[in-house]
Amino acid sequence: MAVILSKKSPSAAEKDLNSIRKGRDLSFFDLVSIDQVTPEDLGLLYDVARRFREYKTYKFSFNKGSSQVNAFFEPSTRTSSSFDLAAKQLSMDTAGVSSNSSVEKGESYLDTVQTIDSYNVKTIVIRSKESGVPAVAARYTQASIINAGDGWHEHPTQALLDGLTMLDHCKSKDMKGRVVVIVGDIMHSRVFGSLVRLLKTLKAEVRISAPLTLIPEDVEKFGVKWYGKVEEALTGADVVYALRVQSERGANGFIPTLREYSKMFGISRKRLDLAKKDAILMHPGPVIRDIDVHSALAAVDEQSYILRQVENGMAVRKALLWLIVDRIDGKKKTFTRK
Ligand code: ASP
Q1: For strand 205-209 and strand 93-98, is the pairing parallel, antiparallel, or unpaired?
Q2: Is 98 within 8 Å of 126 (Cβ atoms)?
Q3: Distance, CA 286 to ligand 1 centroid (Å)?
Q4: Ligand 1 midpoint to CA 297 (Å)
Q5: Does the pLDDT at position 133 exceed 70?
Q6: Ligand 1, closest atom to CA 244?
Q7: Is the CB of 122 under 6 A from ligand 1?
Q8: Of 70, 99, 256, 297, which has the fewest Cβ atoms less than 10 A away?
Q9: 155 lines ligand 1 (CB under 6 A)
Q10: How far, in Å, CA of 108 to CA of 90, rounded?
Q11: 240 contacts 282 by C-beta, under 8 angstroms
Q12: pLDDT tens for residues 220-257?
């Protein structure tokens, strides 16, 4: 008989999570790039995240006494709220810094981040318009830095939650023999930056489709194949992953109009039907309805896994925060504040 985990007492649930963890630790202190995540890290994160997902909104005492600052210098809905809730469900205290901060007055990112670090917080989650802010911050803080999306570069926790969503759908430990089609503004997308690296590790066949003007020059180094005709890319796909046209990064200058883009590359029912029968549709959000994805498919269609991605985002971020704060081996980051 299946055990319903969400009926356990909080202390029994903590015991269960500890037994799933089996004394394992993450190999990194900061998460700046998905390249830092080893196959062992991935296994640990996913074992724990699947458990957290079943315990839903349980309040765990794992990170009691630790604090987190969510420094979001650029708009965010899913990433910021899930990092905040995840920390709270692990009993952390949290504070938020937004684009409304002293950076707007001319303070450097480094000074702002070191100010936050002086509160002795354990984790600083950073979202920035520019690439590279989390990488620089990680060199000058005692707190663990988590990249929540930096410019056009990377968004590692998005890739982690997407990987979990795909693997669970495929009921597999990797994506070998599976076709993932990424459609949209590849060039300006940090989501692509992390996801393509992870998919390579997971051994997926990755096809990309977008106007050539939205494709970075040396994209083949990731082992992906570009398709100018989205229909060809979608044929036989297991996962259809749509990306938003990143207007705030000037992407509109690379296409005739959004309407034309949508006509050529938007995911419609007819196009999704070219993929395998049980293919899933994914999108990191925010979805711009009737541009990236046709409205009827966006959230309600049974092939749409967009809200499942959001649910997995909570679970993965909880797993990451627990494991990054509570490193059993007791090692510390080497930086010490003067
Ligand atoms: N939410 C994702 C990001 O922050 C995708 C997007 O904004 O289109 O990059």
Answers
A1: unpaired
A2: no
A3: 7
A4: 19
A5: yes
A6: 8
A7: no
A8: 256
A9: yes
A10: 31
A11: yes
A12: 999 999 999 999 999 999 999 999 998 888 888 888 89
Q: Residue 325's Cα: distance from chain center in Å?
A: 19
- Map out the domains of the chain with their CATH numbers: 19-155+311-325 (3.40.50.1370), 157-305 (3.40.50.1370)
Structure-token pair, residue 225: 């194949």
Q: Which amino acid belongs to residue 18?
A: N
156 lines ligand 1 (CB under 6 A): no
Per the CB < 8 A criterion, the answer to whether 156 and 37 are in contact is: yes
DSSP symbol at 228: S
3-state DSSP call for residue 80? Answer: helix
Of 68, 80, 63, 61, nearest to 121 by C-alpha is: 68
Which tokens hold the place of 141?
């803080």
- The pLDDT score that the predictor gives to residue 103 is 83
| pTM to 2 decimal places | 0.95
284 pocket-lining for ligand 1 (C-beta < 6 Å): yes
Q: What is the pLDDT of residues 185-197, one digit of tens each?
A: 999 999 999 999 9
Residues 6+ apart with CB under 8 A from 26: 41, 44, 45, 323, 324, 327
